[in-house]
Design a protein that fits this description.
Blueprint lengths: L9 H6 L4 H24 L10 H24 L3 H21 L4 H11 L6 H12 L1 H19 L2 H5 L2 E3 L5 E3 L6 H24 L5 H11 L12 H7 L5
Length: about 240
């Protein structure tokens, strides 16, 4: 059964930051899973330099996204959460670009040609596509999600505060010599969700089938989930866990 990190609420992770064994389980599972997927992506399909197909674009973007996620897992295991935060929007934009380029619209086909000629396809193109396909409310949700993780890239005030401890008289201290467990725990929770985003994208687009992805997931997850160790009564009630 997979680590709790794969589906953990970030706020709950801040409230209960000391689930170190669950984080270690997530690390083991994520590295095993990405190794399996990388082997399939890199060794079962070959593309040439001058190929300009949708399949090649998806393959390149999915490979880049997978290794960005893997790098984030390795960095977070070293408590380097600030670098991890900068990868969130990159991963999200790659996933959205794959979905947009795969839509089959004339606009997407033209933008694919532009992409191969080193022009940027802006995230607004994806949002406009989502608005036409799924409606304004869904497009707004996608926009808000993108804005949220843009704060990690552009280093908003609140995001920067996750790297500071609060001391006496409300003096803040940069975590140069220690790392705040609350911040690391929150980043782990976000990373678990991004892993799920990547898996869903791999299932829906590209060269690996849904069945293959599911098998790799099942083979990578450990059979026993590390039990929760640091939950208050209120948090147990919130998560629907029985109090003994």
């Amino acid at each position: 059964m997979a680590s709790i990190i794969w589906n953990r609420d970030p706020q709950e992770a801040i409230n209960n930051p000391y689930e170190y064994n669950a984080q270690k389980q997530f690390y083991r599972e994520a590295i095993t899973l990405t190794d399996k997927i990388a082997d399939k992506l890199l060794n079962n399909k070959k593309f040439h330099l001058n190929d300009k197909t949708l399949e090649k674009a998806i393959w390149m973007l999915q490979t880049d996204t997978l290794f960005a996620f893997r790098d984030a897992v390795l960095l977070l295991e070293q408590k380097k959460h600030r670098i991890v935060g900068r990868l969130f929007r990159d991963i999200l934009e790659c996933i959205h670009l794959i979905e947009y380029l795969s839509s089959g619209t004339e606009k997407a086909k033209n933008d694919l040609n532009l992409w191969f000629n080193d022009f940027l396809v802006m995230h607004s193109e994806y949002r406009n596509f989502i608005k036409k396909r799924d409606g304004e409310n869904v497009a707004k949700l996608k926009r808000d999600l993108h804005r949220t993780f843009s704060k990690f890239t552009h280093r908003s005030y609140k995001i920067l505060l996750y790297g500071y401890a609060l001391g006496k008289d409300d003096v803040i201290f940069y975590d140069e010599k220690w790392t705040l467990p609350q911040s690391v725990s929150m980043y782990y929770a976000f990373l678990g969700h991004f892993g799920q985003f990547i898996l869903e994208n791999l299932k829906n687009y590209g060269i690996i089938s849904k069945a293959e992805i599911q098998i790799m997931w099942e083979e990578s997850m450990e059979t026993e989930q590390i039990p929760r160790g640091y939950l208050s009564k209120e948090d147990k009630e919130f998560l629907g866990i029985d109090n003994e």
